[in-house]
Specification:
single chain, mainly alpha, two-stranded antiparallel ribbon
Length: 100
């Protein structure tokens, strides 16, 4: 811990000023919500939180018009981390369940 901040918090803060990514690309030019958590955790622990997936492995067809508008093409080989993949990470444990 440095200056009262954990390694995770330091990683998170170092990325807080980045621009937000609309294309869900895991490069360092911009960042999206799940990527921020994924990279901050990896920076703090050296291990990934959850498994990344290629766009082609996800249910992307309903969003094809939006993807084409943002990207021009559909980047099926794009690697990404999803909120679901983060929530299924083996490092996490459930602490409270809402009666769904």
């Amino acid at each position: 811990m440095v200056g009262g901040l954990s390694a995770y918090e330091q990683g998170h803060r170092s990325r807080a000023a980045w621009e937000w990514s609309l294309g869900y690309s895991m490069d360092d030019d911009a960042i999206y919500c799940s990527e921020l958590v994924f990279k901050a955790f990896k920076n703090a622990t050296g291990e990934p939180l959850g498994a990344t997936q290629r766009l082609s492995a996800l249910d992307w067809p309903p969003f094809v018009a939006l993807i084409r508008r943002l990207e021009g093409t559909v980047p099926l080989d794009r690697e990404m981390i999803t909120p679901r993949a983060l929530s299924e990470a083996p490092q996490l444990r459930e602490v409270h369940r809402v009666g769904w």
